[in-house]
Fold this sequence. Notes:
Strand content of chain B: 5-15%
Number of helices of chain A: 16
CATH class of the largest domain in chain A: Alpha Beta
Largest sheet of chain A: 8 strands, parallel
Largest sheet of chain B: 4 strands, mixed
Largest interface: A-B, 25 and 29 residues
CATH topology of the largest domain in chain A: TIM Barrel
Number of strands of chain A: 17
Radius of gyration of chain B: 17 Å
CATH architecture of the largest domain in chain B: 3-Layer(aba) Sandwich
Number of domains of chain B: 2
Oligomer: heterodimer
Structural class of chain B: alpha+beta
Mean pLDDT of chain B: 93
Number of domains of chain A: 3
Strand order of the largest sheet of chain A: 10-9-8-7-6-3-12-11
Number of strands of chain B: 9
Number of helices of chain B: 7
Low-confidence stretches of chain A: none
Strand content of chain A: 15-25%
Amino acid sequence: MALTGIxxxxxxxxxxxxxxxxxxxxxxxxxxxxxKAELDACPYVSDEAREKLxxxxxxxxxxxxxxxxxxxxxxxxxxxxxxxxxxFYNPTLLAAQVGSDIxxxxxxxxxxxxxxxxxxxxxxxxxxxxxxxKDVNGKADTFAAVAKQVAETSEFNVILMTENADxxxxxxxxCAFKRPLMYAATAANADAFGAIAKENDLPLAIKADSIDGxxxxxxxxTGMGLKDLVLDPGSREPKQCHQDMIALxxxxxxxxxxxxxxxxxxxxxxxxxxxxxxxxxxxxxVAKYGGIVVMSDFAGESLFPLLLERLNxxxxxxxxxxxxxxxxxxxxxxxxxxxxxxxxxxxxxxxxSGEIEASKVPTWLLIKDSEGLSVLTAWAAGxxxxxxxxxxxxxxxxxxxxxxxxxxxxxxxxxxxxxxxxELPGWTITVGPREAAHIPGFLRA
Amino acid sequence: MRDEDVETYYSxxxxxxxxPSHVCSVSPERTGLCGAYNWMDCKASFEINxxxxxxxxxxxxxxxxxxxxxxxxxxxxxxxxxxxxxxYNFYSMVTDPMxxxxxxxxxxxxxxxxxxxxxxGRDYAGETPCGMKFTTLAGxxxxxxxxxxxxxxxxxxxxQGKFILGxxxxxxxxxxxxxxxxxxxxxxxxxxxxxxxxxLYDMIADETVGxxxxxxxxxxxxxxxxxxxMDPLIG
Lengths: 445, 235
């Protein structure tokens, strides 16, 4: 059985020196216990403790940081097989591929197009992170030039794809400042690739023809002192690859197999002949343990579902999603449009705003911060009470945008109507429908 | 009403939708950790919906009267958590504490250098002496785990008679957010007096004293906080 935080704590120095990056030894012990920290972060741990804590001394799947700048992201670091056991932490990184023979002008167009693929959802910006540059002709200078252009002219971080050490060296020289992922070390080139990765302190993907091959390769490279690895079991047949991904995750989490305790990379771009099938496979790997998923291209209709799926799967189910407090104009409201108020639980917001949109009636929607609780829950918890709703309406500035003084409150919060009236003298407070589905009828009436 | 007065506790498995191995046991002196269900609520809920999330638990044989462990509860929890949790104690946060779903009103954490415990409510967003904010605490110990050294509990539970009694009870409390402390002032004073320390309220540090163990320890020493002279919290 895994050690509990308190058992680990007893073996730590208990000095609260903060040098590991967290404020107390207890907090550090809890991070170790849940597989989110490494024992090496503690500079004062005794040898005796180190020995006893070996099992808990590192995360079962190492979080590997890729890239630099605004799109810097970690992959791996997961501690559970299924999201319902706790949560997943690091969303699958999405990459699109370019060949090293692409002309600079074409690449510029592509990068611009991909960069424009950004979507707003629940107040989050959804977009892909990576471009994979694939060596197609063994020419080091063109490979380096393409890598350099991606690294320097876009926010995207880079995966360098070649198995030729000279080409890889040129690519690394061109974009090492952006901490690219090197793909891939194989049994044939592991020594050379390991040396380049170590020298430049870069993450290195390893590719084998089976999980067994992966294990020995990973042991060899960790033996060389490399820590940031990414695994490619080499399978390109969907069913086999799916099995391999699950086997890797299980081995790392359930069996504590350190050799496969790294994020995995999947290549739908090498498994299908068209973007639609690729996207379907990509969706499978977002759900089933692809730390990085490489597509042949990004198009709005292929990328958007993947981004949304990723958002759904990697959203922490322990915390309610929220939207920002404020005034949301829907259907171009003017000074005579009605004003509705509800809570900031994301689901509440989307359902209510969707129904208002569908009604085509111009409306001001006020979203009050209720810490992510739905109307009835927020009301019960005192986060949507008469006085604070009234106060929020006053402060929101909606009065400057309208000529009337009518506020519609949710039907489930009908009992706060008196308190809101008290807080907003002169206003008419109308109790709206209980169910969002009845909003269009209510607005049109 | 005391735990000794009844033979039946009630379970609550409402939170299993997101914490599948979590089983709350609600007794008269241990209100549900969400603060929403007390023993009477559960009893009523069961009578309204006999197949619902609140089921009666026959306490059965008492395994440990100090820590608060009963065979009947353990058997129920083992079954309701589908084997994930074999046993837990009602009255301890150090030794096999009750599991926590994540939606607790407060989270208590031990403060080893003060030989005491702190608790923080969800309304306090700042740093705490244990080095973790409420949200971080909820993240590390929520999800249906039994995390020794930490326990989720309701606000009301703090001044109930059995609150971490196996670890020394309310007299272990060395830090609370000011807001929570003031909210419970009268009840803390009353419970402190009942435990023989009438000025306990003034001995409990808050964020105005400090948010690290080093900052609050001198305060506790100056006030002569009872926790400092108790048995070590962890052996």
